[in-house]
């Protein structure tokens, strides 16, 4: 995205030669659309209906942020990112009203060793799959929470990223993810004396990119807490592992897809959910201004609450036509059809998934279409 630079002295206190080598960037995205969606829950219990509404974040979550880098010499630099999400249709803060709910971290980067960052960050699994998503994690209809988990943004996270030629290696540890807990009393905060495992998370993975080929392999684990009474908690486990690949044909067509294995266990060790998730799709640069994207997603639900699943397996087809007006502004059409779940596979499983597209009573499918504008600054 294009960014606007602000003089560092206006935002940072600095002195001497280090100030001259520092830089801070203000950046952001404003994305708003008009959407038509079918078979949503109605105003009265047991009913359903269609809706026309203004929505924020069709292709990208609306946001503004600051990022900065300071050259410390000897191939070492300091860096930070503060990124705030907001709803462009109402102006309200998102991510639970956090000021910098999308990202908030600081770190050091070495030209030889790699980068170490500390704060609220995306998990390794989420980051390494980003280049293998046909819809590029488009906010409105991408089943990101089903694919990568509700902990895809995690608080209190230490992360390492190293680039070694065509290979990128990444790993993270969260002392308390801050993700939605199985019980609101758990808070998802972690970092409780004597309960080191409570709401913790970690992951690792590698990615390869050379010429037209790309591939990645990543693992993620999240340990959500549940109350035992008397102020005590016990932790379950949510494990996910994914393998994905891509192939670029010339400069106009990119084919990609992947598989994600998942297993959620309760604190007592019983299996709450065992599922497999598959996706495949393409990006096609039809003209210099027009990009077309198509994605198919399928979730095979194998076990629910330690018993073989009898639930119909959710699937979704999504399509995006994105027309560029300039380097900073584009118009888009985004559509999706989901079966056995709401859009973005909402409420398809016992996963905590609050995307706002739960099916209305007695409905088994949902169609959504949105026309919007996105501006980057």
From TrEMBL:
What keywords are annotated for this sequence in UniProt? Cell outer membrane, Ion transport, Membrane, Porin, Signal, Transmembrane, Transmembrane beta strand, Transport
Indicate where this protein is primarily found. membrane
Coiled coil ranges: none
What is the membrane topology noted in the UniProt record heading this document? Multi-pass membrane protein
User: Matching InterPro entries, A to Z?
Assistant: Gram-neg_bact_OMP, Gram_neg_porin_domain, Porin_dom_sf, Porin_Gram-ve
- UniProt signal peptide: 1-20
The record ties this protein, via CDD domains, to: gram_neg_porins
* Recorded superkingdom: Bacteria
Q: Where in the cell is it found?
A: Cell outer membrane
Domain Porin as annotated: residue spans: 9-341
Q: Name one Pfam family in it.
A: Porin_4
Its quaternary structure? Homotrimer.
Kindly provide the name given to this protein in its UniProt entry: Outer membrane porin protein
